[in-house]
Write a structure and sequence with these properties.
There is one protein chain. The chain is α+β, with helices and mostly antiparallel strands and about 220 residues long. The chain folds into two domains: about 80 residues, no CATH class; about 90 residues, Ribosomal protein S10 (Alpha-Beta Plaits). Helix 6 crosses helix 7. The longest helix is centred in the middle third of the chain and has 19 residues. The model has no long low-confidence stretch (mean pLDDT about 85).
């Protein structure tokens, strides 16, 4: 069950009905299997390569992994039936997996919130993601570094990057990201002013180059 196999509403409904009615014994799918489905005859759920959820390069990856694995776990066993969940991982002692198994949301929350406080991530800061976009990868590299140099006097060590995202080329355009972790006690208008002035200065200095910079506040 994935986006390709459920493009039409009839294909989606047919898959669900066949599984619910016992005409299909095994349902294999992407993460969309976890969303909003309520089966009454599932006794075993397997989560393959759970490490890919834990290793995703995003400060919210543990939170999202905990949520998704908890949702999947809830699909096994309903009513008086006891379900079984098998998780494929090379890191069974991981904080996410331990707390999912123990069903210990408070402990997981406490550890995650302490980590975010230590590394200055939301809710203890605001994030501003700057995406330098252009068709020439060498120019994008250079522009991202130049933008960093312009931003450093305003934000110092609270800037991460520049780094290429996981998908760094989209429709023949290259992307390189900088992430600003801004203090929450600084007005958003002041932060935007520093960012806008730095971007304008970059455009002025390289006005013959074809590029743009996109700003995403508190990126999802």
């Amino acid at each position: 069950m994935d986006l390709d196999s459920t493009r039409s509403k009839y294909a989606y409904k047919q898959l669900i009905d066949d599984f619910e009615n016992g005409e299909t014994d095994i349902l294999i799918g992407t993460q969309m299997v976890t969303k909003g489905l309520d089966f009454h005859n599932v006794g075993l759920v397997g989560i393959l390569n759970a490490d890919s959820l834990l290793n995703f390069p995003d400060f919210r990856s543990y939170e999202r992994a905990f949520q998704m694995i908890t949702q999947v776990r809830g699909r096994a066993g309903r009513g008086n039936k006891i379900g079984r969940v098998i998780i494929q991982t090379s890191r069974p002692q991981h904080i996410v997996l331990e707390n999912v198994i123990e069903n210990n949301l408070p402990e997981f929350y406490d550890k995650i919130i302490q980590e975010r406080m230590q590394y200055h991530y939301p809710p203890f800061s605001r994030l501003f993601e700057l995406d330098v976009i252009g068709k020439d990868v060498n120019e994008v590299n250079h522009l991202a570094q130049e933008l960093l140099n312009l931003l450093l006097p305003h934000f110092g060590k609270n800037i991460l990057g520049p780094e290429f995202p996981l998908v760094s080329r989209v429709r023949n355009y290259y992307h390189k990201l900088l992430l600003i972790k801004a203090e929450k006690n600084i007005a958003s208008l002041v932060i935007r002013k520093h960012i806008t002035e730095s971007i304008n200065e970059l455009h002025l200095k390289y006005k013959k180059w074809n590029f743009r910079v996109q700003i995403d506040v508190d990126p999802v």
